[in-house]
From TrEMBL:
Residue ranges with Acidic residues bias: 1-12
Protein name: L-lysine 2,3-aminomutase
Positions of region (Disordered): 1-20
Natural source organism: Desulfoplanes formicivorans
Enzyme Commission identifier(s): 5.4.3.2
Keywords for this protein: 4Fe-4S, Iron, Iron-sulfur, Isomerase, Metal-binding, Pyridoxal phosphate, S-adenosyl-L-methionine
Length: 416
């Protein structure tokens, strides 16, 4: 087969090579299937169990399909922080969009072995906020429940690289008995965020059991579930899954998206099934150097998500996990991106940019500075999205206090 013949045995140097060599550019799903999964039909391809069973998990296979360079090959043979796994579906998305920056998100790189001084295995201090296994309780009224450590596809920048991918089974998830008991014993917990790993890699029955258990706790008002499945394994969103999720209302989903290349027809169908099930959909995106760290890409992603009925929620500064320096942008880049979105497009398309503070401080929002202080007349000067200045009469009277007002503003009282 000519695509295989073209491939040399020795991978080339990363600096010198065209990195998309395994497959020709515009490759249809059919062609991709026939080449790499001979004998497979649409029925199998569209079955999420088949996608999980056929994940690409070794360097040789990844090299055959994508064409790795030397350093990638070495890094894939000996992964540093977490296992290598990509669904056939997601790999096809990468191949289809030749040079897709998404490649960097799933292909191990030799940079992963470079540990910078400020990087930590548990940068968010989750383990120290864990009263029982599988629970992170950082905020007063809500907890994170880590339901499984399994993902269908591993993101190389994963904030929980220390935990994920320890087991190969996907159906059952972790034992969450202690976690559920903890939530039951704490009446202040009104919001449970199920995460992992990817909780939607568990089988229907187990997801249903967990949701029913949480729903049996009277003080749990809302349940949220974080997943990347619509991007990496949209086949997982089946009518029967949606029926189960609907029974847990009010249920919210936070969907992990990285780049507009993920917004395929299959992904659209998955999001629409969920939205039609009455599930409010939010998105989470990690800001990644060389992947989505420019206004144009981010605007395309956020606008595309709104078309799929997903409301952008958080844009995260990349957490300092071990071996992630090649993914991190300056904070100024994130602020520039927010500046490039706010006012220039729908307010709904603007996520909240946050840093999850190392050490366990929680999510801290970051905004480009729009307030510029008071002018001579005591008006607050504001900068709009075009960089033009406007004023608003700040209330610096006797009855009000404002950080913008001069000290003496509060002291002038009318003579009574
Ligand atoms: C992100 C997070 C939450 C949820 O935070 P929201 O701002 O309410 O979305 C809850 N617990 C932990 C530990 C988290 O990291």
């Amino acid at each position: 087969m000519h695509v295989l013949d073209e491939l040399e045995d020795e991978p080339p140097d990363c600096a010198s090579s065209n990195l998309q060599r395994g497959m020709p550019r515009e490759v249809t799903e059919d062609r991709f299937m026939k080449t790499w999964f001979p004998g497979t039909g649409d029925r199998q391809w569209n079955d999420w169990h088949w996608q999980i069973r056929n994940r690409i998990t070794d360097a040789a296979r990844l090299h055959a399909i994508l064409g790795l360079c030397k350093e990638e090959m070495a890094a894939s043979r000996e992964v540093a922080n977490m296992p290598l796994a990509v669904t056939p579906y997601y790999l096809r998305v990468i191949v289809e969009n030749a040079h897709s920056p998404l490649r960097k998100c799933v292909v191990p790189s030799s940079w992963e072995h470079l540990i910078s001084p400020h990087e930590l295995t548990d940068p968010l201090g989750e383990d120290t906020h864990s009263p029982v296994p599988g629970i992170v309780h950082r905020y007063p009224d809500r907890v994170l429940l880590l339901a499984t450590d399994f993902c269908s596809t591993y993101c190389r920048y994963c904030t929980r690289s220390r935990l994920v991918g320890r087991r190969r089974a996907s159906c059952f998830g972790n034992s969450w008995k202690q976690g559920v008991e903890y939530i039951r014993s704490r009446p202040e917990i009104r919001d449970v965020l199920i995460s992992g790993g990817d909780p939607l890699t568990m089988c229907d029955e187990h997801i249903e059991r967990l949701l029913l258990e949480l729903r049996s706790i009277p003080h749990v008002e809302i349940v949220r579930l974080g997943t990347k499945v619509p991007a990496v394994l949209p086949q997982r969103i089946t009518p029967s899954l949606v029926r189960i999720l609907r029974k847990a209302h009010p249920l919210y989903l936070s969907l992990h998206f990285t780049h507009p290349h993920e917004l395929t027809p299959a992904c659209k169908r998955a999001c629409e099934l969920l939205a039609d099930g009455g599930i409010p959909l939010g998105s989470q995106t990690v800001l990644l150097a060389g992947v989505n760290d420019d206004v144009t890409t981010m605007k395309r992603l956020m606008q595309g998500l709104l078309r799929f009925r997903v409301r952008p929620y958080y844009l995260y500064q990349c957490d300092p996990i071990p071996g992630s320096s090649h993914f991190r942008t300056p904070v100024a880049t994130g602020l520039e991106i927010i500046r490039g979105l706010r006012g220039h497009t729908s307010g709904y398309a603007v996520p909240q940019y946050v840093i999850d503070a190392p050490g366990g401080g929680g999510k801290i929002p970051l905004l480009p500075k729009s307030e510029q202080g008071l002018d001579a007349l005591g008006n607050l000067v504001l900068k709009n999205y075009e960089g033009k200045l406007f004023t608003y009469p700040e209330a610096c009277g006797p009855m009000t206090r404002s950080i913008f007002c001069p000290e003496d503003a509060h002291e002038s009282r009318p003579d009574l």
